[in-house]
């Protein structure tokens, strides 16, 4: 099937390259195979494979920061091509997120959320990163110590002001749980590095997408960020009280972290993990992290490989003697590779991970 872009914004840079990102390429922006080629008539075109389900996609200039936007600058929902797929689809790009005046955004974070540091040093990577912090509802009025969970893609956790595609509502979820006797934890949200996201959230290199700085990224969390949090806040620093989690590439690096740092992370929330990035990730099944509580959750609408790969991982873990009661393996028929899905599933996954029993 051919997708044609016949209209682009007037302020599109002359040297811009246009790409499709969607469920046919694992939602990786800037993939060379899906770069649209300029046509003699001034349009841009690329072919995408036919699928046995609706095709979802967006147009970018190579990164999520430069994804298309609606004419008023607001976020665009995924474009959807329903079955049966036509031979050709023409689309119009109204605006680019980074080149349009966006509607005023409101902060939606609860009072329990703060920016710990807008430029926390990452010496292993030679850069800095914004770090968000959620403190439990009763933190200020108690002397308790609390478990901690470190979550990737911090822009999307608490505050719609910073999110480009919707926030998870982690703060509202935990505030509500605190009112009904649910588990209370400190949440540390680590902003993703924009163009460095693939590098930082992948422990291995991929021949097409690069990456491979995930080991240094985890060293930053283990050697710098966690010691700082434990020194400045009332945490329970032991592995049994410390979790790590994320979605997509964030799920991938969280799985790797759990397997390689079981003395640090005793819990891992692995949502829609990008196991396709490297077959080497399946070697984690042989690691000794059997005391870890592990969430494995994905949606059946996320791509041809998602459930197949996750099931393969689960079966390999079982074959290596991983306790079945330590894994919460779940699939959802309607689940898509989107923030709305992870927002919906976070409360139940979190409660299982941090249940007192």
UniProtKB/TrEMBL annotation:
Gene3D superfamilies for the chain: alpha/beta hydrolase (3.40.50.1820), Immunoglobulins (2.60.40.10)
Its EC number(s): 3.5.2.6
UniProtKB keywords: Hydrolase
InterPro entries in UniProt: AB_hydrolase_fold, CBM20, Esterase-like, Ig-like_fold, Mycobacterial_A85_antigen
Class of this enzyme: hydrolase
Pfam families: Esterase
GO molecular function, one term: starch binding
Ranges of residues in domain CBM20: 1-98
PANTHER family per UniProt: ENTEROCHELIN ESTERASE-RELATED (PTHR48098), FERRI-BACILLIBACTIN ESTERASE BESA (PTHR48098:SF6)
Protein name as catalogued: Beta-lactamase
């Amino acid at each position: 099937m051919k997708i044609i872009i016949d209209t682009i914004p007037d302020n599109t840079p002359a040297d811009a390259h246009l790409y499709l990102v969607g469920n046919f390429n694992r939602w990786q922006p800037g993939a060379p195979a899906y770069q649209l080629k300029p046509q003699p008539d001034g349009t841009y075109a690329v072919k995408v494979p036919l699928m046995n389900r609706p095709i979802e996609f967006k147009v970018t200039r190579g990164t999520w920061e430069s994804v298309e936007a609606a004419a008023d600058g607001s976020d665009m929902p995924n474009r959807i091509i329903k079955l049966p797929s036509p031979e050709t689809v023409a689309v119009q790009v109204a605006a680019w997120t980074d080149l349009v005046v966006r509607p005023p955004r409101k902060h939606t974070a609860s009072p329990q959320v703060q920016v710990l540091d807008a430029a926390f040093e990452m010496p292993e990577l030679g850069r800095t990163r914004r770090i968000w912090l959620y403190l439990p509802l009763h933190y200020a009025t108690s002397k308790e110590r609390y478990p901690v969970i470190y979550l990737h893609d911090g822009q999307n956790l608490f505050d719609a002001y910073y999110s480009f595609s919707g926030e998870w509502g982690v703060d509202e979820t935990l505030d509500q749980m605190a009112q009904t006797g649910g588990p209370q934890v400190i949440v540390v949200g680590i902003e993703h590095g924009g163009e460095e996201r693939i590098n930082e959230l992948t422990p291995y290199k991929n021949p097409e997408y690069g990456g491979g700085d995930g080991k240094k990224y985890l060293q930053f969390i283990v050697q710098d960020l966690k010691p700082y949090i434990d020194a400045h806040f009332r945490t329970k620093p032991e592995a049994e009280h410390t979790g790590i989690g994320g979605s997509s590439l964030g799920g991938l690096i969280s799985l790797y972290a759990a397997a390689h740092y079981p003395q640090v992370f005793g819990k891992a929330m692995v949502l829609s993990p990008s196991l396709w990035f490297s077959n080497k990730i399946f070697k984690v099944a042989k690691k000794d992290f059997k005391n870890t509580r592990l969430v494995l959750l994905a949606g059946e609408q996320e791509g041809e490989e998602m459930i197949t790969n996750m099931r393969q991982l689960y079966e390999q873990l079982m074959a290596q003697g991983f306790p079945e009661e330590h894994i919460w393996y779940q699939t959802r028929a309607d689940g898509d590779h989107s923030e709305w899905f992870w927002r919906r599933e976070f409360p139940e996954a979190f409660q299982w991970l941090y249940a007192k029993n």
